[in-house]
């Protein structure tokens, strides 16, 4: 820290010491399991096992966003429906929820538009986070029934058309 005057240095030192002795104190204590972060009590946490519950909840939280939605993932399919069956037109398509797909320092003019992260992370307004497990892409939406068919290829009715084709992922190979 470089200060212009001795008075600035004294004021900075006082501010740093005050912070260390109040809100900053928690960062100076030992934390369990060798963690560098303090234990946070009374936090709301929810487990998601299948893509359906995860994507529905993430879509609901995205709808509440006021400032920003940050998504880091290995694969992202903007055309994926976050809630199914899609009974409200395209409202729950990811690209309709987000409206903008851009990284702050990746511009089309620079030739960098596609980038990859193996992390799976969604942060909404820096208050709500979804971490680990599911990319927002085709082949990840699933429910507890784990059906081995692409419901989108069989047109029962618009109300029951869950996958809309291309969402079911199964590798087929020959043992010949």
From TrEMBL:
GO terms for molecular function: phospholipase D activity. Signal peptide: none annotated. The keyword Lipid metabolism applies. InterPro entries: PLipase_D/transphosphatidylase (IPR001736), PLipase_D_fam (IPR015679). Its EC number is 3.1.4.4. GO terms for biological process: phospholipid catabolic process; regulation of vesicle-mediated transport. Residues 113-140 form the PLD phosphodiesterase domain. Coiled coil: none annotated. It catalyses: a 1,2-diacyl-sn-glycero-3-phosphocholine + H2O = a 1,2-diacyl-sn-glycero-3-phosphate + choline + H(+). Keywords: Hydrolase, Lipid degradation, Lipid metabolism, Repeat. The keyword Electron transport does not apply. It comes from the Eukaryota. Pfam families: PLDc. PANTHER family: PHOSPHOLIPASE, PHOSPHOLIPASE D. This is phospholipase D. It comes from Brugia timori. The lineage of its organism: Eukaryota, Metazoa, Ecdysozoa, Nematoda, Chromadorea.
């Amino acid at each position: 820290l470089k200060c212009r005057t001795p008075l600035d240095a004294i004021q900075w030192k006082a501010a740093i010491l005050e912070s260390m002795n109040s809100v900053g104190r928690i960062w100076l204590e030992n934390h369990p399991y060798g963690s560098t972060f303090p234990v946070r009590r009374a936090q709301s946490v929810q487990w998601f096992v299948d893509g359906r519950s995860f994507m529905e909840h993430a879509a609901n939280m995205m709808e509440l966003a006021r400032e920003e939605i940050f998504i880091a993932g290995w694969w992202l399919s903007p055309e994926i429906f976050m809630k199914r069956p899609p009974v409200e037109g395209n409202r729950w398509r990811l690209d309709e929820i987000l409206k903008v797909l851009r990284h702050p320092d990746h511009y089309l003019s620079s030739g960098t538009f596609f980038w990859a992260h193996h992390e799976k992370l969604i942060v909404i307004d820096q208050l709500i986070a979804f971490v680990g497990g599911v990319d927002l892409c085709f082949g990840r939406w699933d429910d507890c029934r784990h059906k081995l068919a692409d419901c989108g290829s069989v047109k029962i009715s618009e109300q029951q058309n869950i996958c809309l084709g291309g969402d079911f992922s199964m590798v087929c190979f020959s043992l010949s």
